[in-house]
Amino acid sequence: MPGTVTSYTVEDLRFPTSLDEAGSDAMNKDGDYSAAYCTLRTDDGQVGYGLTFTIGRGNDIVCSAVEQVASRLVGWKTEELFTAAGMGRMWHYLLADSQLRWIGPEKGVIHIATAAVVNAAWDMYARHEKKPLWQLVADFTPEEFVAATTFRYITDAITPEEALELLKSKEAGKKERVAKLKVEGYPAYTTSVGWFGYPDEKVAKLTREAIAQGFNHFKASSQAMKVGADVATDQRRLALIRSIIDDPKECAGRPVPSAGSLVGKQAGPTGSVLMIDSNQVWDVQEAVDYVKQLKDARPWFIEEPTAPDDILGHASIRKQLKPYGIGVATGEHGHNRMLFKQMLAAESLDVLQIDSCRLAGVNEILAVLLMAAKKGIPVCPHAGGVGLTNYVVHLSIIDYLCVSGTKERNVLEYVSHLHEHFEHPPTINPHGFYNVPLDPNEGYSIGMHDESKATYVYPHGKYWSGAGADKVKANGDGNKLA
Ligand SMILES: [Mg+2]
Q1: Strand-pair partners of 49
Q2: Which keywords does this Swiss-Prot/TrEMBL entry list (predicted)?
Q3: CA of 105 to the centre of ligand 1 (A)
Q4: Which of 69, 148, 273, 276 could make an SS bond with 265 (beta carbons 3.0 to 4.6 A apart)?
């Protein structure tokens, strides 16, 4: 008897990250990293785990939406599900509820909730095949890859036939790339050095620690405020980071990056690259005027300079900052493939930052990887959150092996928070590269310890019903108008 999906559970998990300002930025000052965590079960004992990420309040709303989407998978036979084409059909089915669709379509709460369910189904499929997710997808034929990908609404940018051709062209050398990847790992950058709320001493200490870990790409959160004093703060903080990462003595012993990996990135004398993230705070011209004042820090890019949906605004910022050698990166709030289609068409970005849960899971991400590869834009996924590092290493590996065929200029975000809660947390090698997930039973690497769930489930878990939680619950007025 083939297995059948018979049940699901959804848990509202929240971690009190606002206490130490990990993850803080100019827009999101006091997030409690949270997950709407979905577990799918079959009657023959198979499980699949998936989550979507939020930063606290509202996670219950997402959980409610996850339940509605997950209920649509009940009754599906695993033999219908566990093929590339089956996953493709599942995706379209989940997106096609004629009533739920109204509260999107394909954006916002319903879309990120769909991601949790889609990712859980992929996790279950990968576990069933006894392969980590990246390998499951990398072992697809180009035809299977196309069958798993959604092309709805984007065939004016890329057709399934074009995608097939692109994927076939990358078949040669795939084996060699797998071998190379297992030796080298996948290049990473660190965001953990300069969160918004960190004082200078902490920034300096964390920058030195990141160098010791082998990193040569560093990202800092801009203070990104509208008053001049904060430009000065940014200038000071960025100069501080530059003074450390550009100092040959500070970087002695760190692996030397290849010249090719630094092309167009305004790298310093030691091969260090600096990036800035402003998390959507500015209007278009404000972004240009502000970032120009940071030109001496020679950032590779400004990330999320304005509203994430503003395709033409990003294009304008990109054009105006180009003379300063500063690029534009965006995508962590890119809510669907149609947005990325337009961003790419309008030449709005230099670096595309997909989010594994903002887009509705693996099927839609494959579509964006294909569109970016066609345009030659590097994909450097977003990973600041709980569980996102676990996910994106698989996605970047898929991009390298099957789609873009390169990882030379790509860097995958790495943050070190909350890894202790996962059964298969991501790890970094001494070169500051992600190790390749290799356990045949880890699926999409998002299985979480039962103890962690019991502690952080909201609001009745051990942590949230304890005395320490009151301080966290009082957080949350970070964006209140003064
Ligand atoms: Mg960001």
Answers
A1: 39
A2: Magnesium, Metal-binding
A3: 24
A4: 273
The Å distance, Cα 77 to ligand 1 centre, comes to: 39
CA–centroid distance, residue 467 to ligand 1 (Å): 32
CA-closest candidate to residue 128, choices 83, 185, 193, 71 = 83
Structural tokens at position 72: 């649509």
Cα separation, 413 vs 388, whole angstroms: 9
3-state helix, strand, coil in the chain (%, to 5): 45, 15, 45
Q: Round the average pLDDT of the chain to a whole number and report it.
A: 94
What's the whole-model pTM score? Answer: 0.96
Active site residue 131: no
Using CA atoms, how far apart are residues 215 and 292, in angstroms rounded to an integer?
26
Share of the chain above pLDDT 70, in %: 96
Q: Which long-range contacts (CB under 8 A, 24 or more apart) does 340-345 make?
A: 340/368, 340/371, 340/372, 341/153, 341/154, 341/156, 341/157, 341/371, 342/311, 343/311, 343/314, 344/157, 344/371, 344/372, 344/375, 344/377, 345/157
pLDDT tens digit sequence for 106-152: 999 999 999 999 999 999 999 999 999 999 999 999 999 999 999 99
Q: From ligand 1's centre to the CA of 46, what distance in Å? A: 35
Reported confidence tier of residue 474, pLDDT bands at 50, 70, 90: low
Q: What is the mean pLDDT of residues 26-48?
A: 92
Which one from 92, 226, 449, 462 is the annotated catalytic residue? 226
Displacement of CA 237 from its chain's centroid (Å): 25
Cα 331 to middle of ligand 1, angstroms:
8
Say how many Å lie between the CA of residue 476 and the centre of ligand 1. 19
Residue 132 Cα to ligand 1 middle (Å):
27
Structure tokens at 73: 């998978």
Which pLDDT belongs to residue 481?
42
SS3 category, 466: coil
Sketch out the chain's domains with CATH numbers.
Answer: 174-434 (3.20.20.120)
Going from the Cα of 61 to the center of ligand 1, the distance in angstroms, rounded, reads 23
Identify whether 226 is a catalytic site residue.
Answer: yes
- 3-class SS string, 20-69: CCCCCCCCCCCCCCEEEEEEEEECCCCEEEEEEEECCCCHHHHHHHHHHH
Cβ–Cβ < 8 Å for 414, 191: yes
- The pair of structure tokens assigned to 200 is 């200078």
Which residue is catalytic, options 382, 394, 407, 421?
A: 382
A 10 A CB-CB count for 283 gives 14
Give residue-wise pLDDT tens across range 278-292.
Answer: 989 999 999 999 999
Residue at 457: amino acid letter: V
